[in-house]
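Researcher: Quick test of sequence recovery. Tokens follow.
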């Protein structure tokens, strides 16, 4: 063969290969397409379309790590290319989702070979993080009864509480989670949202009408929080206004325990306790009245005559002989010795 023939033959082969690569690098998941894209990209590293097609092919074939690496390399070469940035964000999202699914699958498989308590914990955790808020809350509590410090369960319970509107309890849950994983940015974000939501409840406690404010105060109260005393005093005021003095006094006393030197709190406590103390002093100072003797009832077995007879001395009880009653004597009649007269009788 002449050198000229060999030259033209090689040129035809190169053109054929180039066309084959162009046809095969279409973003499909076949091994041939991936191989073709890789070869062409090696020759044209700045070709953004080739790189994105290769990434699509890798994602379809579930090679997520390779897809992310390919796109990251492209951004290193072309840092201002927005198409590569968007594709990289999409690839990372898919990568994280698949990692989560794989993690759950492995946990489920591991639970089948673990002790009963471990299997239950995995089941509760899965339900805690996937069911509706009310049902998830029950599952979270069941799981926390087995593993009280399980971070995933703590966060899941706080999420359920937040969705149910119990923002203060949710805030406490996020605080606990943040103490376990202080560098977890997602927990910090949820903690900030819960703090903001609770502040809205505190504002209602301090500003709304009587009934709504009292409910808001009860929901917002957190022991040890900087606004605890303010909320307790507000509770006392609302309860006192509605006539519930015992509950109002209890709220004021709690606030007084936190700050014994607060004059406003001390005055509120005094206003509810001094009337009671004054009444107690008046009751203690009143003279005690001795009971009046009750008249003795007469004994029915004794008659009045028997009672009198019992008091007579024995010598005075001699037999008395009845005496005849003296009759009054009529005055003697007087006769006149004068001469008799006719028609007159003496």
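Model:
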């Amino acid at each position: 063969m002449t050198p000229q023939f060999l030259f033209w033959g090689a040129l035809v082969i190169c053109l054929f290969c180039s066309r084959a690569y162009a046809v095969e690098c279409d973003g499909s998941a076949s091994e041939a397409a991936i191989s073709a894209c890789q070869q062409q990209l090696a020759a044209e590293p700045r070709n953004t379309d080739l790189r994105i097609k290769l990434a699509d092919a890798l994602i379809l074939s579930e090679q997520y790590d390779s897809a992310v690496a390919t796109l990251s390399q492209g951004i290193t070469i072309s840092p201002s290319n927005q198409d590569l940035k968007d594709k990289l964000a999409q690839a990372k999202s898919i990568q994280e989702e698949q990692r989560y699914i794989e993690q759950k699958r492995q946990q489920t498989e591991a639970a089948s070979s673990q002790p009963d308590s471990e299997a239950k914990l995995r089941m509760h955790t899965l339900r805690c993080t996937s069911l509706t808020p009310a049902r998830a809350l029950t599952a979270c509590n069941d799981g926390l009864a087995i593993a009280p410090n399980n971070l995933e369960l703590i966060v899941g319970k706080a999420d359920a509480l937040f969705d149910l509107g119990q923002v203060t309890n949710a805030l406490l849950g996020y605080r606990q989670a943040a103490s376990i994983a202080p560098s977890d940015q997602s927990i910090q974000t949820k903690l900030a949202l819960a703090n903001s939501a609770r502040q809205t409840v505190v504002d209602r406690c301090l500003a709304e009408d009587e009934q709504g404010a009292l409910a808001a105060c009860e929901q917002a109260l957190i022991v040890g929080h900087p606004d605890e005393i303010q909320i307790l005093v507000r509770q006392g005021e609302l309860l006192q206004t509605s006539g519930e003095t015992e509950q109002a006094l209890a709220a004021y006393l709690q606030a007084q325990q936190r700050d014994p030197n607060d004059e406003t709190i001390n005055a509120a406590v005094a206003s509810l306790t001094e009337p009671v103390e004054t009444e107690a002093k008046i009751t203690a100072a009143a003279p005690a009245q001795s009971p009046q003797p009750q008249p003795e009832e007469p004994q029915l077995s004794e008659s009045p005559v028997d009672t009198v007879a019992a008091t007579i001395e024995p010598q005075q009880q001699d037999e008395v002989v009845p005496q005849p009653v003296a009759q009054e004597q009529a005055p003697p009649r007087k006769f006149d010795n004068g001469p008799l007269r006719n028609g007159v009788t003496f």
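The two ends are 221 Å apart (CA to CA).
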